[in-house]
Amino acid sequence: MGGRGEEKEAEGVMATDFFWSYTDEPHASRRRQILSQYPQIKDLFGPDPWAFLKVSVAVSLQLWTATFLHNAGWLKILAIAYFFGSFLNHNLFLAIHELSHNLAFSTPVYNRWLGIFANLPIGVPMSVTFQKYHLEHHRFQGVDGIDMDIPSRTEAHLVTNVVSKSVWVIFQLFFYALRPLFLKPKPPGYWEFINLFVQIALDAAVVYFWGWKSFAYLILSTFVGGGMHPMAGHFISEHYVFKPDQETYSYYGPLNLMTWCVGYHNEHHDFPRISGSKLYKVKEIAPEYYEGLESYKSWSQVIYMYIMDRAVGPFSRMKRKATKSE
Questions:
Q1: Which of 49, 67, 93, 215 has CA atoms 20 to 30 A from the CA of 85?
Q2: How many helices (H) and strands (E) does the chain have?
Q3: What tens digit of pLDDT does each residue of 261-287 get?
């Protein structure tokens, strides 16, 4: 499929370039093959009717928790943020991922409004901007200069050992969010400003009525939930190459119940029009397409492997050159 000096990786030495593929991304061709053999999978396309309720419960519970902690000590706030709030805010981040594919309502604008609502406890406006870049990640997976899911060369050259990889994991949400703004900035549009103003209004209301500790709880929940945290393992597990010639990996563990089944990542890229709640059915209908692929059962283990494996780092991603049409 490609190469980058695999002999270095075999010796346990981190490579100095990405994996380069000279074929198209694998999901479009596999989707055509599966649909030709199992056309009934098209019946799974469409929104999740429970999405609005699930988002509403998570948002309400997290905002209530923030108000409950308005006079709490900082140690208590940090503990609850890590062991409770982080799970809710990461759940909402993945709800926004689901909504970026219009999988709550058939009408796209309703999904956009629900995404802005799901964004509220996260504390920082990102829902609308995320959709712009994420859809490019699906359409141009691995394409150099377009897919902003892939680390920059600067990141890759700086993150080269256990210590720097640990720091990178802790702050990976910042890299994930800021990378496209530096490498491929897009001018903000009407909806970005709506997202921004709604978020600022919520943040200001939290500070005004309940104080800075309540707001800090929300921000801490976002930060720790996107760092050295079991749920954040999906950032690494989805596309970091641990097995040569495979660029997308699924996770079949219990945390799928809290993450909109984003662990079914091969299935998701094959069929982005199927909601997370139904992705398991794809594997049930067409098992022969997935059972031979490398997969994971623990996101925590993935984080550990990423940090401790001397041959794995930000360069462990599959890239491909852009074509003229791109």
A1: 49
A2: 16, 5
A3: 999 999 999 999 999 999 999 999 999
